[in-house]
Amino acid sequence: MRAIIVTEPGGPEVLSWSEVPDPQPGPGEVLVDVRATAVNRADLLQRQGHYPAPPGAPEYLGLECSGVITEVGSGVRDWAVGQQVCALLAGGGYAERVAVPVGQLLPVPEGVDLVDAAALPEVASTVWSNVVQVARLAAGETLLVHGGGSGIGTFAIQLGIALGASVVATARGAKHDRLRALGPVHLVDYREQDFVAEVRKVTAGGGADVILDIMGASYLGRNVAALAVDGRLVTIGMQGGRKGELDLGALLAKRGTLAATALRSRPPEQKAAIVSGVRDQVWPLIEAGRVRPVVDRRLPISEAAQAHRLVESNEHVGKVLLTVG
Ligand SMILES: NC(=O)c1ccc[n+]([C@@H]2O[C@H](COP(=O)([O-])OP(=O)(O)OC[C@H]3O[C@@H](n4cnc5c(N)ncnc54)[C@H](OP(=O)(O)O)[C@@H]3O)[C@@H](O)[C@H]2O)c1
C-alpha cells in the first residue's frame, strides 16, 4: 500500500506518499480501507520529531480515519467486511489501509457522509472524555473553550451547547462569523479582549465552571482567575508552553480542580471505554443534527504537505481532511 512517510524530521516538505508494507489485522482487529483521514495538531509535532508514536502503534501519522472494513482478524464479532466505519487510531491513518483494534471503531453516524466521518473520532473522544468524564460539565453551567476555531474547539462548542451549558469561546476575530453558525456562543477575540473579564461579564462575576484549555503555561494564571468556585480546568494542549507558575492560593480560594490528559498514550482498554461512551452519548447528538463535523476543507492525501502548512498557519476553522483513493 501507500502511506505518508516522514523522510526525516522537519517541515511539511518531508512528507512523502510512498510504497510501504501492508498492515495485517491481528486478533481483535479489523483492516480498514481508508477513505479519509484528518490533520491533527499532534501530526505537526510528530512530523517535526517531537511526538513519536507510542510503542506498538503504526509509525505513520494519522490519529483517525474513516473507511470500509475489508478484513476481520480472529475473534472479531459485531463487525463485518463491507461495513463503513470511522476509527480512533494511535497512528497510521495517513495510509491506504490501517489495522484497527475493534474497541476503537465507530459506525459512521447516520446523516454524515463517509469522508466527513473522519473528522469525528479524535475530537469527539477528546472533548467528551475531558468535558464530560473528567470535568463533569452539567446543564446550566458555563463552559469556556479556548481555541474555539480549532477542530477540538468547534466540537467542544457544539457539545457544550447540546449538553445545555452556556458556552464562551476564544478565537481570533476573523473566525467569529463561522463560529456563530454553530449555535449560541459568546465569542472572545483573545487578541483584542481579556477573556477573564469577558467570562466574568457573561456570568455576572461567577466565572466558568469548566475550562477546556489548549494553551497550558501562558494561560494558567488567567484560567484560574476565570474559574468559578468549584470550577474544573482541564488542560489538553500546551501551545503556550509547558512550565508555568501558579498562585495556589488563588486555586484554593476557588476550591478549583486542575486536570491534564492525553488521549493518544492511553492503553487500548481506556480508548475502548471512551469510544464506547462516545458511541452511547455523543453519536445520538450527531444523528439528531445537534452536533456536526466542521470541515474546513478536503485535500487529496498527496497534498498532505499543503494541509500541514494550512493547519500550521491556523487559518482553518474546524478540521482539514485528507482524502484517500
Ligand atoms: N490531550 C489530548 O488528548 C489532545 C487531543 C487532541 C488535541 N489536543 C490539543 O488540542 C489543541 C487543538 O487541537 P486541534 O488539532 O483541534 O488544533 P487546530 O485545529 O490546529 O487549532 C489550533 C488552534 O489554536 C488556536 N490558538 C492559538 N493561539 C491561541 C490563543 N492564544 N488563544 C486561543 N486559541 C489560540 C488557533 O486559533 P486562532 O486562529 O483563533 O488563534 C487554532 O484554532 C492542540 O493544542 C492539540 O495538541 C489534545
From TrEMBL:
Oxidoreductase as a keyword of this entry, yes or no, is yes
What Gene3D superfamilies is this protein classified in? Answer: Medium-chain alcohol dehydrogenases, catalytic domain (3.90.180.10), NAD(P)-binding Rossmann-like Domain (3.40.50.720)
Q: Which UniProt keywords apply?
A: NADP, Oxidoreductase
What positions does the domain Enoyl reductase (ER) occupy?
10-322
Q: Which InterPro entries match?
A: ADH-like_N (IPR013154), ER (IPR020843), GroES-like_sf (IPR011032), NAD(P)-bd_dom_sf (IPR036291), Quinone_OxRdtase_PIG3 (IPR014189)
Cross-referenced CDD domains = p53_inducible_oxidoreductase
Q: Does the keyword Phosphoprotein apply?
A: no
**Highest rank taxon of the organism:** Bacteria
Looking up Pfam families in the UniProt record yields:
ADH_N, ADH_zinc_N_2
Sequence intervals crossing the membrane: none
What name does this protein carry? NAD(P)H-quinone oxidoreductase
